[in-house]
TrEMBL record:
Modification type 4-aspartylphosphate: residues: D54
Domain Response regulatory, chain residue ranges per copy: 3-119
Superkingdom of origin: Bacteria
The name this protein goes by in its record: DNA-binding NarL/FixJ family response regulator
Subcellular location: Cytoplasm
């Protein structure tokens, strides 16, 4: 079961999410929070697999709550579910530790797919969020030497990962097993000093292994 905590200050939004997500056989709603402060408290008490986090909330916003939760519980995945798609909201949310970013106008079925993809270790970013991140990374300055730590096969896996492919798809493309793909990805994260697929993909774009198109 995927155990989900919903954090949103609007009762109607929470009810709508609960109503739909409860129809999924592999999803359990373990709690609801009206603001970031409640989300932090419930994350500690309930230890959910994933939190659907609104950005703008009273008492404590979603970005501050995400930072606090990820500092104490890095294993909890956080997906921002918001109405804001501008870089002033996207960038701070990802930097705070959110691994997913979707807009509230997302179709319910697509939201469920995004949740499952995120917990499967795949990218779960709205296209506008991806665009802002690529723009930000293209202007940043990172030492390129870490790329040279990768083996040829690890670079190949990184390129495929950066295209948004799942472990199964990467394995098929490179004619290796999914277990081998997971090992390579673990090594890539360690060598590039990143913690998730999104950061690894952005690093690959920054250093010219793949294009940002």
């Amino acid at each position: 079961m995927i155990r989900i905590l919903i954090a949103d200050d609007h009762h109607v939004v929470r009810r709508g999410l609960v109503f739909f997500l409860k129809t999924q056989k592999d999803i359990e709603i373990v709690g609801e929070a009206k603001n970031g402060e409640e989300a932090v408290k419930l994350a500690q008490e309930l230890n959910p697999d994933l939190i659907l986090m609104d950005l703008v909330m009273p008492v404590m916003d979603g970005i501050k709550a995400t930072k606090l939760i990820k500092n104490k519980h890095p294993e909890i995945e956080i997906m921002m579910l918001t109405s804001f798609s501008d870089q002033d909201h996207v960038i701070p949310a990802i930097e705070a530790g959110a691994a997913g970013y979707q807009l509230k106008d997302i179709e319910p079925d697509e939201l469920v797919r995004s949740i499952r993809k995120l917990l499967d270790g795949e990218n779960s970013l709205h296209p506008k969020a991806t665009t802002h991140l690529l723009s930000r990374i293209s202007r940043s300055h990172q030492p390129p030497h870490l790329v040279h730590e990768l083996t040829k096969r690890e670079r190949e896996v990184l390129v495929e990962l950066s295209k948004g492919k799942s472990n199964k798809e990467i394995a098929s493309s490179l004619y290796i097993t999914e277990k081998t793909v997971k090992t390579h990805i673990s090594n890539i994260f360690a060598k590039l000093e990143v913690s998730d697929r999104t950061q690894a993909a952005l690093y690959a774009v920054k250093h010219g292994l793949v294009t940002g198109e």
